[in-house]
Amino acid sequence: MKRKFVTNLALLLFLNLLIKPFYAFGIDVSVQNAVGSLLYGNFYILLNFSLIFSIILDLGIENFNRREIARHQHVLNRYFSYLFPLKLILGIIYFILCSIIGYMLGWRAQEFNLLWVLLFNQFLASFILYLRSNLGGLHMFKIDSFLSVLDRFVVIVICGFLLLEPVTKNAFRIEWFVYAQTAAYVISAVVAFSVVFSKATSFKFQFNLKKNLSFLRKSFPFALLTLFMAAYLRIDSILLGKLLPDGKEQAGIYAQSFRIVEILSNYGYLFTIILLPVFSRMIRKKESVEQLSKLSFLLLFVPAFIITLGCTFYSSQIMDILYNAHVEESSRVFKILIFSFLGMCTTYIFGTLLTANGNMKQLNIMALTAVGFNLTLNLILIPRLGVNGAAITNVSIQCFTSLVQIALVLKIFKFKVNYSLLARLTVFLVTLIITGILVKKLPWDWYYSFGLFLTLGTVFSFIFRLFSLKTFYDILTSAEPE
Fold first, then answer.
1. Using alpha carbons only, what angle is made at residue 237 by residues 97 and 34, rounded to the nearest 5 degrees?
2. Is 64:219 a contact under the CB 8 Å cutoff?
């Protein structure tokens, strides 16, 4: 099982490293530079609004479906037949509810023209994730990996042309970016549906209220968790827009920093795509998950520590090379916000393990508490500290959820605390901090120093035996994956 995890994770990471950084820093950044922080900030507020309420499109179906199919693959035909029409109905409800709430928030024609397209995009994105959950449950990780980057690749092609062509570059509009996403999602949805349809031995388009209510009852805890997590992760920009006089512009500045955190967190999320079905199957077979948890923790957290500290030391230079405006403000925000990445990584390992084990009650209590803390801190800090207050709140909430999830895993799975590993991690972290301070003083261009820091961090991870070449070799040369 370790080999299956490592080899499929390697492919997933490779494809995403190939495509998503180019999308985030080549396309998304160029779009913000082209339209300005004010217009992009307005788009960013509407986007996060659509993301928070996108749980209505899913109601926990994706994670529930991935977990159940991983445990019982024969249910694919039945689940696919009933859940497909249910997703369409949820899309209609989502569209109506978001439109009503948007009107209550005071948005009018200008915002709604963009919001409605964003809502349709979120419907398509949710539909694609549902289709991919079937492939993940079947352990078809290679096809799932290619589908994970297809939509981004299409946007790169479309927007790349528009941003490079002189005629369209100077007249670029944020709507073009949104329309390009629509085209990309449509193509990805068609491809994903075709693959899943080919794996279903029978498919009947059925709507059965009793069956659908049964599915929703089972998936409801997953839905609540997704809603609460989306709220405490995404609500910052909406509150910035409402609590500050120049809220849209401040949300744009926040987006400049959060964009990097989000692209990094996407790589952590890739672990969950494989870990959730793998953990679920191992737990059903009553196999120990301790070693796989340790392996996945180290594979994600060690690079996360190195990257987080590197971004902290070179925040000003990174912002300067990416953006044309608000560089200094974004640098200060980014230096705080980057530490949220470590909290997100905790959720991607330990939160996924708890989800696979069905500990939804504990996770939902934690997430609901986090939403309350988030609102309270933001209402206090944003009026006083502005965008920096939102960043401090985000990091604080991620620290809180990290500690709770670690405590839950230790209690429920009775993992033994590896004091030797903790000591090595502590020494590794202290060594990284000292190295970063010394390397930054070198009379080199910053990108050489940054590259040296990342290289030394990788070397230290082997010196302190956090990684072992022998371990990787043994995994890759073990028996064929299941």
1. 105
2. yes
Number of other residues whose CB lies within 10 A of the CB of residue 465 = 12
60: left (phi over 0), alpha (psi -120 to 50) or beta: left
- Reduce the DSSP state of residue 246 to 3 states and report it: coil
Residues 242 and 114: their CA atoms lie apart, in Å, by 19
Amino acid letter at 468? S
85-137: per-residue pLDDT in tens?
Answer: 888 888 899 999 999 988 888 888 878 888 999 999 999 998 888 888 777 76
Which stretch of DSSP H or E encloses residue 319?
Answer: helix 315-322
Q: Could you give the angle at which helices 37-52 and 209-243 cross, rounded to 10 degrees? A: 150
Q: What's the mean pLDDT in 453-475? A: 79
Place of tokens 């809220």: 247
The chain-wide mean pLDDT, for the chain, equals 84
Task: List the one residue out of 193, 153, 221, 473 whose CA is nearest residue 368.
Answer: 221
Look at residue 479 and tell me whether its pLDDT is greater than 50: no
CB-facing half-sphere around the CA of 380: CA atoms within 13 A: 8
DSSP secondary structure string for all residues of 354-416 = HHHTT-HHHHHHHHHHHHHHHHHHHHHHHHHHTHHHHHHHHHHHHHHHHHHHHHHHHHHH-PP
What value does the mean pLDDT take over residues 362-372?
Answer: 93
Give the number of residues written for the chain. Answer: 482
* Burial call 342-360: b when 16+ CB within 10 Å, e when fewer: bbbbbbbbbbbbbbbbebb
Phi, psi of 294 (to 5 degrees): -65, -45
How does pLDDT run across 395-432, given as a tens digit for each residue?
999 999 999 999 999 999 988 888 888 999 999 999 99
Q: Is 100 exposed, middle or buried (0-12, 13-18, 19+ CB in 10 A)?
A: exposed
